[in-house]
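Re: weekly structure request thread

Next one in the queue (190 aa):
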Amino acid sequence: MELQEMEEKLQNGDVLLEVKKKKKKKRRKKKRKREKRKEKIEEEEEEEVELSQDPLEVLGRDIMLMILKNLDARSVALSLLVSRAWHGVASSDSIWSAKCEELWLGKAHIPHLALVQGLPKLAAYSLSIMDGKRVVPEYWRNLDPYWKGTSPLMHRYFHTDGSQTADPGDKETGLELGNVQRPLLLLQCS
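Done, posted below.
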């Protein structure tokens, strides 16, 4: 009997050891899972921090200038509102001079104020946009038969001395090419 009892105790001890080992394994697994979850949460927080950083601080002024140069004018104008630092980059003449050239390409009229030396290019662009939204007054439309649809487009040439001329054969206002008769009044009217 003693032998059987000892065997049972040994078996019970083995069973107890096995139970203890299983419990230890479970605890280790749980601990590893907790550590993995904790690491994952920390990585996500780091990603959030990286994603929430200001691109201007991360990339720098020069790269942001290159990026903004590739955007349309409206998007660049909206980026002026992000922060003071972004305003400083987005209001750069290097960006807006290209936008002005793009806007003025093929235009017959560029506002005089937009060409003032020393005027920031952002202001020149804004003035050009506002000038482009002006409505042509009715008296002006009545001067040019093209607006009425009765003849081809008339050409007026405005000179730096304040005079204007027209194409040969233009009988509407009595101006002919080279015939300086009237000072520039149209600019004063608008």
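The longest strand covers residues 156-158. The beta strands are 156-158, 164-166.
Next request, please.
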